[in-house]
Amino acid sequence: MGDALRGYRIIAGSWIRASLTYRASFVTLTLTSVLITFLDFAIILVMFSHLTAFGGFSLSSIAVIYGMSGFSLGMADLLLGNTELVGRRVRDGSLDSMLVRPVPTLVQLAADHFALRRMGRVVQAVGVLGWGVATAGIGWTPARVAVLAGALVTGSVIFCSIFVMGGAFQVFAGDASEVANAFTYGGNTLGQYPFTIYPADLVKALTFILPMAFINWYPALYVLGRPDPFGFPEWLQWASPVVTAGFVVVAGCSWRAAIRRYRSTGS
To answer: What is the pLDDT of residue 30?
Structure first.
């Protein structure tokens, strides 16, 4: 693990230094990323110009839900987002060269072409989340602080796992990045709103099949002091770390299975 982290740091660091060579370009791209991602929340602001609540939640509460999901996706995209390029590397044969280097293949895939400008999404999400927690009237306790902080970590790890599983799928399917994007960026879009606007069967699927609800929905209910509108057990609001650990194991097994069954392009 230590060697893998060291390899990631070296590869990512070289790309960061390269991007900072042209600082004006880097700042422009980062600010553009912040503005573009803010348009998502701007849609919610426009919606609330005609509403006082949506799905039973106020604007401030939705900002908390939105910010938690956006931060988690932003960190995962920053750290492991390049795994969505696995299909391209399978086609052009560059994955073959990574397999023979003394650095784990997943580390190389994630760190290659590391784009620090993706921090723009994280910055935007932190801003929205900060405004939300400041105005939502939350009765803070040590437990609520711990759940919120833990959810930002576990949510990021869940999205990282989905990126890895999407990359593993592309090893088998070739260029299927859009399928993976449906669960990463599509999952983030789904999680930006209260789950009360979705059918109960979909919420069950996002709880017991693909654990998207543990990224922000259940932790947010606890932080906001809201009962579960679907009547699910209260302990689910604390279960994100356990669910995340299990999902990481599934993602790791998926990646190993994909690499073991990979057949070179012969190029």
So the answer is: 85
Q: What is the pLDDT of residues 5-25, one digit of tens each?
A: 888 989 888 888 888 888 888
Give the containing element (helix H, strand E) for 11. helix 2-19
Separation CA 123–CA 47 (nearest Å): 23
In contact, 236 and 266? CB cutoff 8 Å? no
Question: Rounded CA gap, 247 and 186, in Å?
Answer: 18
How many Å apart are CA 238 and CA 147, to the nearest integer?
7
Instruction: Compute the distance between CA of residue 45 and CA of residue 42 in angstroms, rounded to an integer.
Output: 5
Structure-token pair, residue 13: 């660091």
Task: Please give the single-letter amino acid code of residue 239.
Answer: A
pTM: 0.92
Banded pLDDT at 174 (limits 50, 70, 90): low
DSSP annotation of 130: H
Phi, psi of 211 (to 5 degrees): -75, 50
With both helix axes pointing from N to C terminus, report the angle between 240-260 and 142-173 in degrees, rounded to the nearest 10.
20
Residue 218 has which token pair? 């259940």
Query: How far, in Å, are 127, 169, 189 from residue 97 at the CA level?
Result: 41, 20, 35
Distance between CA atoms of residues 14 and 153, nearest Å: 26
Question: Please, what's the largest Cα pairwise distance for the chain?
Answer: 61
CB 240 within 8 A of CB 151: yes
Question: pLDDT tens-digit profile of 35-94?
Answer: 888 888 998 999 998 888 999 999 999 999 999 999 999 999 999 988 888 888 888 888
% helix / strand / coil in the chain, to the nearest 5? 80, 0, 20
SS3 153: helix
CA distance 90 to 98: 11
